[in-house]
């Protein structure tokens, strides 16, 4: 869908993209990086709106340097910042955008009604946009990116300014853009964790450089930590404690699950081999407790990223950089 080769963009005082090479296939891809990492710059180059200083990029088989107009016919774009006219309704605005994309009047009106319904705007679509909440404005921006039925959409920070519930709703909507319509998505965020659930693939950029590109499941592969939760019993009113003591008798180190509510009831041990599962089962049975949960912990993208960044810092220090 998208391929870049040694793509660079230099402004007089800053290098926004630094020899970025990557391949993005169909599905939902997250482009993650801190503010200023170069995400918006990359999107503008991929749309053919801003020339690269060096390197090349191809979107849907089209060269960004020479075929920008053809790319924009096939690709929808939801910009990051508020860019909606306050005094027209969502319907008027999205119909206008559909017409700009070349749809005839009737098709533009029909597609607008369908798309606004799909993004969850109903009666309010006839009211002026100026009175909308941030969540509703984000939905209008998403609708105008989808109205001409593109093959691919670029969504720049679509969860910006939303509260946690609004953010979850937007992420679900983004997932459905792909599952319901088969449209591929490139979505940016400065929050690593939020894309874990939504994206098939994650690309991490930092200071305009590619830090990592892999499938979300590679990021969140299982760890060697086993999380165990047990019931209490009459004999052991604190089942968690009894379990930890039983492990200690066998020289197995345990910790509890952390700071989150309820995490004190989760016992964590390191798996040595497949026998560890049998051992846990036997110990729990011996104590006469019920086993509520026994599962291998998974990494969160943010943890992986944090430890990789820490390692890089350590290396930089070691090498005097
Ligand atoms: N037109 C421009 N002129 C000069 N510098 C620019 C221009 N556009 C972007 N930059 C700089 O390039 C770097 C990357 O900016 P970019 O907007 O691509 O980052 P981003 O990852 O999208 O972050 P954000 O989410 O904050 O927009 C930043 O240092 C920014 O200040």
TrEMBL record:
It comes from the Bacteria. Keywords: ATP-binding, Nucleotide-binding, Transport. GO terms for molecular function: ATP binding. Residues 2-232 form the ABC transporter domain. Pfam families: ABC_tran. InterPro entries: AAA+_ATPase (IPR003593), ABC_transporter-like_ATP-bd (IPR003439), P-loop_NTPase (IPR027417). Belongs to the ABC transporter superfamily. This is ABC transporter ATP-binding protein. It comes from Streptomyces aureus.
């Amino acid at each position: 869908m998208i391929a870049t080769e040694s793509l660079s963009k230099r402004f007089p005082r800053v290098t926004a993209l630094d020899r970025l090479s990557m391949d993005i296939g169909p599905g939902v891809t997250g482009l993650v990086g801190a503010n200023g990492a170069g995400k918006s710059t990359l999107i503008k180059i991929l749309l053919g709106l801003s020339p690269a200083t060096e390197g090349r990029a191809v979107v849907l088989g089209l060269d960004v340097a020479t075929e920008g107009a053809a790319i924009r016919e096939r690709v929808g774009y939801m910009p990051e910042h508020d860019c909606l006219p306050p005094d027209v309704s969502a319907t008027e605005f999205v119909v206008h955008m559909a017409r700009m994309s070349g749809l005839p009047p009737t098709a533009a009106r029909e597609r607008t009604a369908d798309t606004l319904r799909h993004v969850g705007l109903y009666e309010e679509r006839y009211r002026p946009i100026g009175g909308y909440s941030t969540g509703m404005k984000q939905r209008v921006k998403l609708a105008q990116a989808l109205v001409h039925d593109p093959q691919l959409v670029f969504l720049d920070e679509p969860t910006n300014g939303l509260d946690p519930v609004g953010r979850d709703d937007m992420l679900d909507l983004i997932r459905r853009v792909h599952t319901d319509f088969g449209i591929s998505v490139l979505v940016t965020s400065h929050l690593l964790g939020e894309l874990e659930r939504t994206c098939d693939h994650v690309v991490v950029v930092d200071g305009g450089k590619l830090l990592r590109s892999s499938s979300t499941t590679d990021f969140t592969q299982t760890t060697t930590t086993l999380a165990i939760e047990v019931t209490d019993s009459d004999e052991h009113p604190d089942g968690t404690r009894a379990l930890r003591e039983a492990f200690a008798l066998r020289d197995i180190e345990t910790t509890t699950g952390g700071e989150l509510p309820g995490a004190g009831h989760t016992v964590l041990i390191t798996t040595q081999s497949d026998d560890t599962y049998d051992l846990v089962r036997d110990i729990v049975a011996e104590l006469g407790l019920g086993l509520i949960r026994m599962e291998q912990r998974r990494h969160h993208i943010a943890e992986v990223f944090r430890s990789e960044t820490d390692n890089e810092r350590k290396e930089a220090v070691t090498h005097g950089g």
